[in-house]
What we know:
The complex is a heterodimer.
Chain A: E1 7-17, H1 23-32, E2 48-55, E3 58-65, H2 78-81, E4 86-92, H3 96-112, E5 118-124, H4 136-146, E6 149-152, H5 161-171, H6 174-178
Parallel strand pairs in A: 1-3, 1-4, 4-5, 5-6
Antiparallel strand pairs in A: 2-3
Chain B: E1 2-9, H1 13-23, E2 29-32, E3 44-46, H2 47-58, E4 65-72, E5 82-84, E6 90-91, H3 95-102, E7 111-114, E8 116-121, E9 124-127, H4 132-137, H5 143-157, H6 165-168, H7 176-184, H8 188-198, H9 208-221, E10 230-233, H10 238-251, E11 255-257, E12 262-266, E13 271-274, E14 279-289, E15 293-305, E16 319-324, E17 336-342, E18 353-359, H11 363-385, E19 398-401, E20 404-407, H12 410-413, E21 427-438, E22 447-450, H13 462-474
Parallel strand pairs in B: 1-2, 1-14, 2-11, 8-16, 14-22
Antiparallel strand pairs in B: 3-5, 4-21, 6-10, 7-10, 8-9, 12-13, 13-14, 15-18, 15-21, 16-17, 17-18, 19-20
Helix pairs in contact in B: 1-10, 1-13, 7-8, 7-9
InterPro entries (chain A): P-loop_NTPase, Small_GTP-bd, Small_GTPase
GO molecular function (chain A): GTP binding; GTPase activity
Subcellular location (chain A): Cell membrane
Amino acid sequence: MTTPSTRYAQFKLVLLGESAVGKSSLVHRFVKDSFDEYRESTIGAAFLTQTVNVDENTTVKFEIWDTAGQERYKSLAPMYYRNANCAVVVYDITQAASLDRAKAWVKELQRQANESIVIALAGNKLDLESDREVDTSVAQSYADEAGLLFYETSAKSGENVLELFTGIAKKLPIDAAASRHRPVPKGVDLSKPSPSSGSGACNC
Amino acid sequence: MEEYDVIIYGTDLVQSIVGAALSWQGVSVLHVDKSPYYGGASATLSLTEIKQWVESNNNDPSSPFDDVKLYVSRNIDTSKYSIDLSPRIIFSASDFIDLLRTSRVYRYLTIKPLTMFHTYKDDFFDKLASTKEDIFTDQSITVQTKRALLKFMRFVLNYQSESSLPIWTDFKNRPIAEFLQAKFKIDPIYSNELVYTLGLCPALATPTSVGLHRIKKYLTSMGVFGSFPAMFSLHGGPGEIAQGFCRSGAVGGAVYRLHSDVSSVDPDTQSIVLDDGTNIKYREKLVIPSQQQGSREVRRLVAIVSNDCKPWFGEGESAAVVVFPPGTLEGNETAVQCLIFGAESQQCQSGQAVWYLSTTEKGAKGKKELELALEKLESAILRESTEDFDIEVSEEDVILRNGTPLISSVRLGQSLKDFVPREKLQYLAKLQYVQHETIANPVADNVIPIGSSAFDITYDGIVEQAKKIFSQITGSDDDFFNVDFEDEDEEDIGEVKPLGSTSNSNSNNNSNAEPELTFGDAMEV
């Protein structure tokens, strides 16, 4: 076979966690390498994409879905969870209650999403160490118990953000996804009407 | 007190579109639904949720649904099925497709082609001869009829042009079948196909103005995205698309609150109270679904069957339309329409299909006609699927297309009369209900009531209704999804982020120029 030596796969990643724990900021740091102190909520696009190199030959592209605030009243649609390959459940290390909410979201994911979903727990706002309410060891032992990846991150400084996404990428079934040939035929591309008419209906 | 510019109650498709359109215009929107799911009366629900839906309908006198009956086999996992309460298909050349494109909501959806439109007549199922080639090569059509059909097809593509108007204006409000007979000498057998199968018009007396619009839409839809006229969204239709618009609205800044009922409305103080006691003010308008029922209704029968129904689908496809025109089911006066979805539609499991039958015929007559149609479908698909069934292919069954012989729907073309199935078709679930239309009656200046019909299995009229409500709120529909989206992704595989680097990659705003689709004028009814 004449397959190229590079592996490429695309995965859907969903964000979850209480409002104001920094979900969107994490994504912005990862995708645009920027941080906006006064960001109110959520990114303005349908979803963002970013690629990471897992190793020399392996590229993973994330299609990242933000909650767009629909988590606030538990109003996320089935569409949100569907076909999600991985999830980042975010809490705020300076808010003990946010870890409890994160645990509830993990349960919700296990109920709604694919069984094989890769879940990472991210304790954000590591830059606010002096206000810390959640011990690293507490979150770590919960993550171990629940089978989650665990990182403490700072969207503000960028610490551990790329490591978080790369860590997820390494856990994903890249071979299985890459062998599907990329990109998976997704159906009719509505952004591209076919220029020539496919039938004689219009030129009679 | 919480305050929004506009509060929308109910997340049915039209409300969801309006909510998204407003939020992208910078209007602050609170969107509330009493159900724990999106989509309201056009939701897509799992069978598990359908069970709860049946119960809540029976306990809700204000529900637009009644006569709800459900059977579910004990041997299936009800969470693995998606049922549309009011399924629809999308024509390629339609204002709805334009909306999915301009709103970018198509990015949340997976859209698949739908080619096969079958007509039931005289105990036969025929694949529709809908293109010039089909008509030329169909040996069952006489030369005169061929000429008439082709002449009509040329006419209908430009029926709104000045020179064409005199041909049909006198017939504008008369049944289209009369017009086809009088002006084009097209027999009812063929006009049935044009009107009911291509046009998907439900009623016997479809006026010529509507019929022409719909037939033209089918014909202009061929070839827009490929050689198929229609499409459908995976995982469900309007309910799935409503979720997409609500997500779009949320990204635009709207607030969504499911499972919250409005317990009271006070137009004088412009405020509502939710069932948890929260008091919320609206500065401009409140949009609420009307509960006043009109006289029209649609009766539905949904069946999940243990048969993949592949013989009805086009190659590589997993959906089809079957139409029973008036006069084919022991004297039915309205057409029975049927949408068939296979497992690839993600609505059911492999080896199964979901059948959605509907009619606008009322009462016991409508019920009987749906049951009759179901019987016909059942014996047809059993015959199709019987592998050792003797098929004699005669020369007439073979047509030539581009020099290649094609067997034209042979088994579909054979009479069902003599067929005695050896097996029975297994019904995994069956759901029946009647849905009443609701009529929008004015309540107060700052309250906009919204009615619903759901009689159409296409998305015709949805955009119009959404624009109308949008205009009632903002004063005009000029800014309806008139949005410059920041274009943040797409086709940027070239640039790869190296591990360990935090360099900024590809956040350029390359808005891919999208060619405008314009196909004739909007429907005038």
